[in-house]
Design goal:
- This protein is mainly α and 198 residues long.
- It has 3 helices and no strands.
- The radius of gyration is 46 Å and the shape is flat.
- It starts with a helix and ends with a helix.
- It is found in: Secreted.
Length: 198
């Protein structure tokens, strides 16, 4: 299959080499044929820029005059609004100061009242959670102990395996692995042959 891919790649390279002079010639011809048109377009753009520059400056001046006129009309209104707004905010601040002080004093009292009502609820929830956790611990404890024992046992067994036993297992498994490798290679070749026929 890899040989077929190499052949296909080689054929594409040969075709590309044969077509390259033709495509280069076509591109060169198109560039030459459109050179006058391209120069004409660039010339038109440069002429248009030169013609529009004074008009652009005139437009800029007109816009600046309009903005200055708008600013002149709006500035007194905005200034008056700002001063009035600032005065109103100061008056509101003066009116709110005693109320804010009263609220600040009440917050400490309110926190204590809230805490007094909330603490029995929190204590009840904490007590129930502790009870449930203890119950869960009692249910799970035998399983955890058994799991610990199995881990200790497995660790002990792993420690008792000698290097000779490991080598013997390796010697026994290696020929089997080689046999599997040979069979997989045969299967792959059969599948590959089927696809190469197509």
């Amino acid at each position: 299959m890899s040989l077929r891919l190499d052949d296909l790649h080689a054929q594409i390279k040969v075709l590309q080499g044969a077509v390259s002079p033709v495509t280069d010639s076509v591109v060169s011809t198109i560039v030459d044929a459109t050179a006058d048109f391209q120069a004409s377009v660039i010339n038109d753009i440069n002429t248009l820029k030169a013609e529009l520059e004074p008009k652009r400056l005139e437009l800029k001046e007109v816009l600046e005059n309009h903005i200055a006129d708008y600013r002149l009309q709006l500035e007194p209104i905005i200034k008056e609004y700002f001063e009035k707004h600032t005065t109103e905010m100061e008056a509101l601040k003066i009116r709110l100061e005693p109320i804010v002080e009263q609220m600040r004093a009440k917050v400490a009292t309110n926190v204590e009242e809230t805490k007094a009502v909330l603490m029995p609820m929190v204590e009840s929830v904490r007590s129930k959670l502790t009870e449930r956790l203890d119950s869960l611990r009692q249910i799970v404890s035998p399983y955890v102990d058994e799991y610990k024992e199995q881990l200790k046992k497995a660790y002990g067994q792993a420690q008792s395996i000698s290097p000779e036993d490991i080598q013997a297992l390796k010697d026994k498994v290696t020929p089997m692995a080689e046999d599997i490798k040979v069979q997989l290679t045969s299967i792959f070749e059969a599948v590959s042959a089927l696809f190469n026929k197509s």
